[in-house]
């Protein structure tokens, strides 16, 4: 669209040049110089005025598109609250090289086709980056469409490995893929003496719920432990009695159970295991990084003492994320939970690239992101895409609980990550 408008502007300018030539010729043939020049200048000012209205200057704003789930079951994973708050903070401080952020936001629900249609709409409006539903069946077609415009899918919270297999080249995730969160949780489990584990797997959440437990188990076995059993479940699940009964029948008591699923399902699992007398750790993925998990301890502060999860950014009291949430709340822009907060990192990364390149060319933005040794963000100190290109290199926190309050158990880049590409 930008080039169509510039071609139109050139046609206007060409028209002005032809008018100039014609008037000069007429001037040579007549004695009414003053009248012709006045008329020419009047018409010239009109043409230029209309031209600049029809063809506005580009680069005055930094447009980022968010066809994201604001309603439905995926809504808790949308990054828009944090993105809006960070954009507002940057804009209030003068923007980036004088350019202000403009976020284009519309609800997709859980529908991939809606995400695709809105992506096409936002691309025509000149966005330089897109964030969308954080699941590969949406991100892949959205990335393929955006590639035709040179635009990057810059996803705040996507951990699915499918996006890092070379299907698309214009995808960047602000976080580490699932094998890293699984490995971080497993390494902490081993440090706590965990040896025998049960893995709960489901195909309903793609590789996130099906393979992440297997990666956890691989790290446990690499550290000398053993996978006692693999048990299937469905998402959602409100009754875990079949799986709990199966655990009770095992000849070896499990030290830990690993699951990559959602709340409130995992909260029910924790309660039912406790009621059945199974005193095992419950380890999980970023799906447990949901404020509703904390409420499981409302009536029993100790029930979460052996619950931990590898996640995407530290979220315990005193963390950078909580400081950001506090700042946004004071601005009247609440950011509820980790997934929304990660939107701040995306905006800061784009701001970094705009400042480095001095403009808003989307392909130059992507190159700047991938060339940087370190990019300052908000939920952690910094990230880098230089090594991995399609996902961030960043520490992976493991969050646990003490007396019902979140605590940071570890925060490192795992030393052993299972092969996943």
Description:
Residues 1-58 have low confidence and may be disordered. 45% of the residues are buried. The protein has helices at residues 2-29, 33-54, 80-92, 112-124, 136-147, 178-191, 207-210, 212-222, 241-249, 265-275, 291-294, 320-330, 338-341, 343-357, 362-371; strands spanning 61-68, 100-107, 129-130, 152-155, 171-173, 196-201, 226-232, 256-259, 281-284, 307-310, 375-376, 382-383, 396-402, 405-412. The chain has 421 residues and is α/β, with parallel strands linked by helices. A seven-stranded mixed β-sheet has the order 7-6-8-9-10-13-14, covered by helices on one side. Strands 2-1-3-4-5 form a five-stranded parallel β-sheet, sandwiched between helices.
């Amino acid at each position: 669209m930008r080039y169509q408008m510039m071609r139109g502007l050139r046609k206007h300018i060409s028209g002005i040049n032809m008018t100039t030539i014609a008037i000069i010729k007429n001037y040579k043939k007549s004695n009414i110089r003053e009248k012709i020049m006045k008329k020419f200048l009047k018409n010239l000012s009109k043409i230029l005025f209309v031209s600049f209205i029809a063809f506005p200057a580009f680069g005055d704003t930094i447009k980022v598109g968010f066809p994201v789930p604001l309603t439905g079951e995926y809504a808790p994973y949308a990054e828009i609250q944090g993105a809006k708050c960070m954009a507002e903070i940057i804009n209030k401080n003068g923007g980036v090289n004088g350019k202000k952020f403009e976020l284009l936001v519309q609800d997709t629900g859980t529908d991939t086709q809606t995400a695709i249609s809105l992506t096409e709409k936002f691309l025509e409006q000149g966005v330089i980056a897109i964030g969308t539903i954080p699941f590969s069946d949406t991100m892949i077609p959205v990335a393929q469409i955006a590639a035709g415009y040179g635009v990057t899918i810059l996803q705040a919270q996507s951990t699915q490995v499918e996006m890092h297999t070379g299907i698309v080249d214009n995808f960047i995730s602000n976080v580490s893929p699932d094998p890293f969160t699984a490995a971080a949780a497993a390494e902490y489990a081993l440090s706590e003496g965990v040896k025998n584990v049960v893995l709960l797997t489901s195909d309903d959440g793609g590789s996130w719920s099906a393979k992440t437990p297997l990666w956890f188990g691989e790290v446990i076995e690499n550290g000398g432990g053993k996978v006692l059993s693999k048990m299937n479940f469905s998402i959602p699940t409100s009754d875990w009695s079949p799986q709990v009964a199966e655990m009770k029948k095992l000849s070896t008591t499990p030290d830990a159970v690993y699951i990559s699923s959602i709340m409130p399902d995992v909260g029910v699992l924790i309660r039912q295991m406790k009621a059945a007398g199974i005193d095992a750790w419950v380890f999980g993925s970023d799906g447990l990084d949901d404020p509703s998990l904390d409420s499981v301890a409302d009536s029993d502060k100790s029930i979460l003492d052996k619950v931990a999860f590898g996640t995407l950014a530290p979220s315990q009291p005193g963390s950078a994320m909580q400081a950001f949430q506090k700042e946004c709340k004071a601005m009247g822009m609440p950011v509820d939970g980790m997934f929304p907060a990660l939107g701040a990192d995306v905006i800061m990364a784009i701001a970094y690239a705009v400042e480095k390149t001095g403009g808003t060319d989307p392909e130059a933005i992507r190159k700047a992101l991938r060339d940087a040794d370190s990019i300052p963000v908000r939920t952690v100190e910094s990230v880098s895409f230089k090594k991995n290109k399609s996902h961030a290199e960043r520490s992976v926190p493991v969050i646990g609980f003490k007396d019902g309050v979140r605590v940071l158990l570890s925060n490192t880049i795992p030393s052993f990550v299972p092969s996943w590409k």
